[in-house]
Amino acid sequence: MYTETKGKTLEEMDRVFGSHTGEQDQLLLEEAQRDVGLTAYLDGQTGSHDQGFSRGVGTGVNMVELA
Fold it and tell me: What does pTM read for this prediction?
Protein backbone atom coordinates (compact mmCIF):
# COMPACT_ATOMS: atom_id res chain seq x y z
CA MET A 1 0.00 0.00 0.00
CA TYR A 2 1.30 3.47 -0.95
CA THR A 3 0.48 6.87 0.51
CA GLU A 4 -1.15 9.35 -1.90
CA THR A 5 1.23 12.25 -2.44
CA LYS A 6 -0.43 14.12 -5.31
CA GLY A 7 -1.35 17.66 -4.32
CA LYS A 8 0.37 17.45 -0.92
CA THR A 9 2.42 20.34 0.45
CA LEU A 10 6.08 19.87 1.29
CA GLU A 11 5.20 20.04 4.98
CA GLU A 12 2.65 17.26 4.53
CA MET A 13 5.26 15.21 2.66
CA ASP A 14 7.67 15.71 5.57
CA ARG A 15 5.04 14.21 7.89
CA VAL A 16 4.41 11.29 5.52
CA PHE A 17 8.10 10.39 5.51
CA GLY A 18 8.79 11.31 9.15
CA SER A 19 11.02 14.27 8.34
CA HIS A 20 11.01 17.62 10.15
CA THR A 21 13.23 19.48 7.70
CA GLY A 22 10.46 21.78 6.42
CA GLU A 23 9.42 22.75 9.93
CA GLN A 24 13.05 23.40 10.92
CA ASP A 25 13.63 25.48 7.79
CA GLN A 26 10.52 27.56 8.55
CA LEU A 27 11.71 28.21 12.10
CA LEU A 28 15.16 29.25 10.85
CA LEU A 29 13.59 31.58 8.27
CA GLU A 30 11.35 33.21 10.89
CA GLU A 31 14.33 33.66 13.23
CA ALA A 32 16.43 35.24 10.47
CA GLN A 33 13.57 37.60 9.53
CA ARG A 34 13.26 38.72 13.17
CA ASP A 35 17.04 39.13 13.50
CA VAL A 36 17.28 41.54 10.58
CA GLY A 37 14.13 43.45 11.56
CA LEU A 38 12.07 42.32 8.57
CA THR A 39 9.19 41.03 10.68
CA ALA A 40 8.87 44.32 12.57
CA TYR A 41 9.22 46.30 9.33
CA LEU A 42 6.47 44.36 7.59
CA ASP A 43 4.24 44.72 10.67
CA GLY A 44 4.73 48.51 10.48
CA GLN A 45 6.72 48.71 13.69
CA THR A 46 9.93 50.64 14.11
CA GLY A 47 12.99 49.33 15.83
CA SER A 48 16.75 49.55 15.84
CA HIS A 49 17.17 46.93 13.11
CA ASP A 50 14.81 48.42 10.52
CA GLN A 51 16.30 51.91 10.15
CA GLY A 52 17.93 51.04 6.81
CA PHE A 53 14.64 50.26 5.10
CA SER A 54 12.67 52.69 2.98
CA ARG A 55 9.70 52.20 0.71
CA GLY A 56 10.29 52.70 -3.01
CA VAL A 57 8.02 55.60 -3.96
CA GLY A 58 5.53 54.73 -6.69
CA THR A 59 7.17 51.40 -7.45
CA GLY A 60 5.19 49.07 -5.20
CA VAL A 61 8.56 47.58 -4.28
CA ASN A 62 10.34 47.79 -0.94
CA MET A 63 13.86 49.13 -1.32
CA VAL A 64 16.80 48.64 1.03
CA GLU A 65 19.32 51.43 1.56
CA LEU A 66 22.81 50.21 2.30
CA ALA A 67 24.76 52.35 4.74
Answer: 0.43
